[in-house]
Amino acid sequence: MDLVAYVRECTWGALRLDELEILDNDLAIGGVKIDKLKNAKYREVVSITQVRHQALNWLEGFEQIYSQVTTDT
Question: How far is CA 56 from CA 16, 61, 71, in A?
Fold first, then answer.
């Protein structure tokens, strides 16, 4: 995926790549493109992303009780 082009051309919302690691126009983690990560590292990144997504939804007021917040948005 050309993440840089996607963000630049996005029409549904303002997206930014600040402080993200980019390699060959795609997201990278520790110098490795996301589609080339080893399975364990990929699962770790997905887990962190899900927890942060849940926390953001809670801060946005989706639910009062954190454990009831979903990440289906």
Answer: 17, 9, 9
